[in-house]
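Re: the 78-residue chain
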Amino acid sequence: MFRVPSFYEDTPTFEDAWKTIAFCGSDDALAGMEFMNRRWEEHCASEDDDDTFFENWSYEANAYNVVFSGMNKLFGVA
C-alpha cells in the first residue's frame, strides 16, 4: 500500500478504484497494480521528492490502496 500524504488522500469507491487500476493495466487490474508498483520504484530511484510523485499519481495511488484493501478482505488477510 502507498503511504499517501493527507493532502493527497482521497478514497474512491471500490468500483471507481477498480476501474482506475484496471485502466492503468490496459483492462487488467493485476497489471495495473504492478504498473503502480513500477511507477513507485522508478520514483524512488529518482531524485524527485514524494510530492512530485503524488502530484502526478495521487488518484491512482489512492485507487491502488482501495483495491489492495478490498482484495485483502476477499482472501481473509488483515
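The chain has three helices and no strands.
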